């Protein structure tokens, strides 16, 4: 039985399909539902102020996804707690899931080319390997 559910959301349609599943699982188990989005800084900032400025820009990037997720959960009469992290998505999500003791991670799957997956691997694939809890991948 799941008591704490974490959904990772990058703002994509696949992520929102996964959110719909996470909501259903949370309702079925009477579980807490949390959503995490990860801001990935693409360059090495030179100062603390640059980090803060970059974070403020990224906060706006996920603002619509967070609002949409809250509306989607509210329609199902469910509360969702959102979290915004900075870092590499796989590492940040895995560590957050471990630190907060989540029972399950629900993620969307975005397919890439076979070559891309062979050379780089997908975020979903890496989360399945590295997450400290059960991972449900929604296509």
**Major sheet characteristics:** 5 strands, parallel
- Backbone shape: globular
Task: Give the CATH superfamily.
Answer: HUPs
E-strand count: 5
Mean of pLDDT: 85
Helix content: 40-55%
- Residue stretches low in confidence (pLDDT < 50, at least 5 long) are none
Class by alpha and beta content: alpha/beta
Oligomer: single chain
Which radius of gyration do the C-alpha atoms yield? 15 Å
Q: What would CATH call the class?
A: Alpha Beta
Total number of domains: 1
Element pattern in H and E:
EHEHEHEHHE
Largest beta sheet: what is the strand line-up? 3-2-1-4-5
> How large is the count of helical segments?
5
Q: N- to C-terminal separation?
A: 23 Å
What does this structure look like?
It is globular, with a radius of gyration of 15 Å. By secondary structure, it is α/β, with parallel strands linked by helices. The protein has a single domain, classed as Rossmann fold (3-Layer(aba) Sandwich), CATH 3.40.50.620. The mean pLDDT is 85. α3 packs parallel to α5 (123-130). Helices cover 51% and strands 22% of the residues. It contains 5 helices and 5 strands, in the order βαβαβαβααβ. It has a 5-stranded parallel beta sheet, with helices on both faces.
């Amino acid at each position: 039985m799941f008591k704490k559910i974490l959904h990772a959301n990058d703002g994509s349609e696949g992520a929102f399909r996964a959110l719909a599943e996470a909501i259903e699982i949370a309702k079925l188990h009477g579980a807490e539902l949390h959503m995490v989005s990860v801001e990935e800084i693409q360059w090495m900032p030179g100062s603390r102020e640059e980090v803060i400025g970059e974070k403020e820009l990224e906060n706006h990037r996920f603002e619509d996804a967070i609002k949409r997720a809250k509306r989607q959960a509210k329609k199902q009469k469910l509360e969702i707690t959102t979290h915004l992290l900075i870092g590499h998505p796989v590492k940040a999500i895995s560590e957050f899931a471990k630190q907060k003791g989540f029972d399950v991670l629900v993620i969307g799957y975005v397919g890439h080319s076979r070559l891309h997956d062979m050379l780089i691997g997908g975020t979903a694939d890496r989360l399945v390997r590295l997450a400290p809890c059960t991972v449900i991948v929604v296509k």
